[in-house]
Structures are given as structure tokens and as C-alpha cells.
TrEMBL record:
Subcellular location: Cell membrane
Family: Belongs to the MscS (TC 1.A.23) family.
Statement: the UniProt record of this protein carries the keyword Acetylation: no
Keywords (A to Z) from UniProt: Cell membrane, Membrane, Transmembrane, Transmembrane helix
Lineage, highest ranks first: Bacteria, Pseudomonadati, Bacteroidota, Flavobacteriia, Flavobacteriales
Name the UniProt record assigns to this protein: Mechanosensitive ion channel protein MscS
Transmembrane segments: 20-39, 60-79, 85-105
Species whose genome carries this gene: Arenibacter aquaticus
Length: 274
């Protein structure tokens, strides 16, 4: 026991009157381990019971991130106190320095504040489908400064949080899991309008990725310059890969048009010479 006491009392670093002993390092490691264990227990409890708390996975993730940042701030404060640095005096003494750093890292702090806003108000959650700067992104992670997403080309996109909070962002999955989409097509003048609408609706029904049969609707939109313009509207939960779904439905429409001898015209112009 005496030997253990001597080991713990051994000075690792000595700078003037300032000493860091083995037991100081042991306490720091203990604080670190206890913090990790507490966070693991909290994460396990939240993800195990989030359904009972009426929270979805994205809300549970946001709640856990906020708790994690708060606990780590407390842990770091304890570590600083353990090595003899008084946090209150440190903050007061470095106020002027923090102002200078804040001016130099204004955008970084803006991103951090935006991250706190995203995690607290939960307007954007994990697995949400966003349209940002014309790119469709599925959010995979919301960090304190940046968020990570995956676009339709399976490329990871790192997004500064301030870009999400200050710009116009379309959240395709904010209210409902399923979203309405449309496919536009034009046919030659003289085509049977009712038959075209029937084919459009039947083409959607042949594809597995649609929701609610009653919400499939074919419409005669307009008399175009070279065609009769139609659209078919349908709901789908496959928001992220919807372009593939639309492509498949267009193939079905094209096949059915050929079978029924319905022509998709190309633009034509009559030129008259005197």
C-alpha cells in the first residue's frame, strides 16, 4: 500500500511550483472513462426506449447529441480543475483573447450556433431528405459545426450548419414519409385523351414504389405548341431514389404508348417561302 502511495505521489511534470503527479493523471483518466460510460448508458437507454417516449430516431439522435456536448463540457471543466486550472479565472483572464478569436473565427462560431439550433429545434433530423443548392442529400449525421449527408451519387457531402439554417432548404420528409411527384409527357394532337390518362395511371400501378392507389391521378394539362400535354401524379416513400422510380415509370409509359399506337411528337415548325 505504501508503494502504491509513492507511485501515485510521484511527480511526472514539475514547472516551478506547479506539479502534475501520477494520481492527477489517474483522476483525469477516471473522469474520461466515467464520462464515456455515462454517455454509453444514456445512448443505450435513449435508443432502447425512444419509441416509448414518442420520439423518432432523428429526435433521439438530436437529444443525445445535446446531452453529449453538455456532459463533455462538464467533464473538461473537472479535468482543468484537477490539473489546477481554475475555469472561472481562465474565462475571465482570456476574455479579450476570446473576443479576438471570435472575430477571426466568426463563421466557425456561426456554424456551431447553427448546429445547436438544428439539434434543439429538430427541424432537420437524421435520414431527412433535403434539397440544398439543387442537390438532393440524405442527412446521416448532424454535428456541432457541420452535418454530413449522402447525395444520389453516393458521394458524402459535408455541409456547414449555417448553410442549412440561413438558406432556403426544402425538407422533403419533414411532415410525411411519402411525397407527391409528377411525370410530364406530351402526345400528338388527335390522340385519345381518355386512353392517354388511363395508360398514365396504369403505368404507375405497374411499379412497386408508389403509395395509395386512390392518389394516382392523370391530368390533361394544356394544349402545347406541338403536343397535348399531360401529367401523372403519385405518392412514393422512395424519396431519395425517386429519379430511378420516375425513369422506370417513363419506360412503362413509352412501352404502353407503342402498344396503343400513341405518338410522342417532337417540336415542328412550318416555314413558308414567298
Amino acid at each position: 500500500m505504501e508503494t502504491l502511495g509513492k507511485i501515485l505521489d510521484f511527480n511526472l511534470i514539475s514547472i516551478g511550483d506547479y506539479n502534475i503527479k501520477v494520481y492527477t493523471l489517474a483522476i483525469i483518466l477516471l473522469i474520461f472513462l466515467v464520462t464515456r460510460i455515462i454517455l454509453k448508458l444514456i445512448k443505450t437507454a435513449l435508443y432502447r426506449r425512444y419509441k416509448g417516449l414518442h420520439l423518432d430516431k432523428g429526435s433521439t439522435y438530436a437529444l443525445y447529441q445535446i446531452i453529449k456536448y453538455i456532459i463533455w463540457i462538464i467533464a473538461i471543466a473537472f479535468i482543468l480543475e484537477t490539473i489546477g486550472i481554475q475555469v472561472t479565472l481562465l474565462i475571465a483572464g482570456s476574455a479579450a483573447l476570446l473576443v479576438g478569436i471570435g472575430l477571426g473565427l466568426q463563421q466557425t462560431f456561426n456554424d456551431i450556433i447553427s448546429g445547436i439550433i438544428l439539434l434543439s429545434e429538430k427541424s432537420i433530423k437524421i435520414n431527412d431528405i433535403l434539397e440544398i443548392d439543387g442537390d438532393i442529400v440524405e442527412i446521416q449525421e448532424i454535428g456541432l459545426r457541420t452535418s454530413k449527408g449522402l447525395n444520389r451519387s453516393d458521394i458524402a457531402i459535408i455541409i456547414p450548419n449555417s448553410l442549412i439554417t440561413t438558406n432556403k432548404v426544402i425538407n422533403w420528409s419533414h411532415q410525411k414519409k411519402k411525397t407527391r411527384f409528377r411525370i410530364n409527357v406530351g402526345v400528338a394532337y388527335g390522340s385519345d385523351v381518355e386512353l392517354v390518362i388511363k395508360i398514365l395511371e396504369e403505368s404507375v400501378l405497374e411499379h412497386p414504389d408508389f403509395e395509395d392507389t386512390k392518389m394516382i391521378e392523370g391530368r390533361f394539362v394544356n394544349f402545347g405548341n406541338s403536343s397535348l400535354d399531360f401529367e401523372v401524379l403519385f405518392f412514393s416513400e422512395n424519396v431519395f431514389r425517386i429519379e430511378k422510380v420516375k425513369s422506370d415509370i417513363r419506360k412503362i409509359i413509352n412501352r404502353k404508348f407503342r402498344e396503343n399506337k400513341i405518338v410522342i411528337p417532337f417540336p415542328q415548325m412550318d416555314v413558308h417561302f414567298k
